[in-house]
């Protein structure tokens, strides 16, 4: 039993990755899990329609969540540039098509200074839908 306490203490001191919440501290991964709670993931898709996007939410160094018309949520975990992704960034997307795709990049602009803050390379979009209600 004492070994378990020592091991737990060492993991906390080391800042063990994968521990979403420690002593009430929230992480971006835990916040993302909360945002998609109660939803079911489907197979990833390469593109989403720009005109369907109602809002976006950035999770620090983790992911971008796109809320679309009809209540579907798409989560994109960029393939590169995550270290630049901050929850207070403005996302600037340049697109020559009506879609946002996994081959696109998103420029990041600091909300306060309005200076460029980096960019991310998008990955596939994972759709999350609410489970259909069962007829009882």
Task: Characterize the structure shown.
There is one protein chain. The longest helix is centred in the first third of the chain and has 12 residues, at 2-13. The protein is of the alpha+beta class. Helices cover 15% and strands 36% of the residues. It has one domain. The protein has helices spanning 2-13, 28-35; strands at residues 39-41, 47-49, 53-59, 63-68, 73-76, 89-93, 99-101, 105-110, 116-121, 125-130.
What's the number of helices? 2
Q: List low-pLDDT spans.
A: 1-25
Which structural class fits the helix and strand makeup? Answer: alpha+beta
Question: What proportion strand?
Answer: 35-45%
Mean pLDDT across every amino acid position? 82
Question: Would you summarize the structure shown here?
Answer:
Helices cover 15% and strands 36% of the residues. With 136 residues, it is an alpha+beta fold. The protein is globular and about 50 Å long.
Protein topology:
Elements: H1 2-13, H2 28-35, E1 39-41, E2 47-49, E3 53-59, E4 63-68, E5 73-76, E6 89-93, E7 99-101, E8 105-110, E9 116-121, E10 125-130
Antiparallel strand pairs: 1-10, 2-7, 3-4, 4-5, 5-10, 6-8, 8-9
Tags for this model:
10 strands, 136 residues, alpha+beta, 2 helices
